[in-house]
Amino acid sequence: MKKATSLTVQNTAINLKRINSSDFLSLTDIARAKNPDEPKDVVKNWLRSRQTIDFLGLWEQINNPDFKGVEFDSFKSQAGSNSFTLSPTKWIENTHAVGLVSKAGRYGGTFAHPDIAFEFASWISAEFKLFLIKEFQRLKQDEIDSKKLEWNLSRSLSKINYRIHTDAIQAYIVPKLNPSQINFTYADEADLLNLALFGITAKQWREQNPDKQGNLRDYASVEELVILSNMESYNAEMIKQTLPPQQRLVQLNDMAITQMNSLTKHEPKLTSSTLKIKK
């Protein structure tokens, strides 16, 4: 399911942008509910209020360690006077604020963190704010439900490929073992995959997470489950080629790092999900 980039409140379309892991809402679009012709003026009038400056300053002090308090105090002392004017760009540039983002151009406008967007909506209309909050909550719940569906599908695919993996173990490894070794072999091969992808064995995970139910794969991300599914098929083929465990571990880890980098679009880090095995 494609991530939503807008929502509609009382026939007003409101665009969203993903900024610093948060969904920022367009204040310019929200302002159209009050003045469709000059939404920028609505935002500027809101910024003239002493109450608005107090709220923005408090939000930045809580959430932004680089916020410039001296510049904020200057705006605060002037706010509310007839001569005081303030644009989003001026506020951002002078105080290094992060709760507002202002972009020029066709798809630009002023965007705000949800905390601030809801405060602005309250200034527009208490009714509009209530419907905005409800619509935003619905959007977030839809995303959660979609993520759960993706996770369940990935987990199911992983379990299907697990059968391919165990069949290869049974056909190519088990016949070479004595009866006392067989039960440990399946667990060892599962931990080979765990080490390559998560950097930890099932036993180590249980020892580090005594309060959690299930196993480490139950807490894997969708990306990790997709990679795990691919790794099970790949390891099955390497088992058929009679490659030794250590060689398979290195190749599986290289595969995990490459695919994680591709799926998440960032440089691999030395974390549990991208641990580089020493060769």
TrEMBL record:
The keyword DNA-binding applies. Pfam families: KilA-N. Keywords: DNA-binding. One of its GO terms (molecular function) is DNA binding. It comes from the Bacteria. PROSITE patterns: KILA_N. Signal peptide: none annotated. The keyword Chloroplast does not apply. Residues 3-139 form the KilA-N domain. This is DNA-binding protein. It comes from Thiomicrospira aerophila AL3.
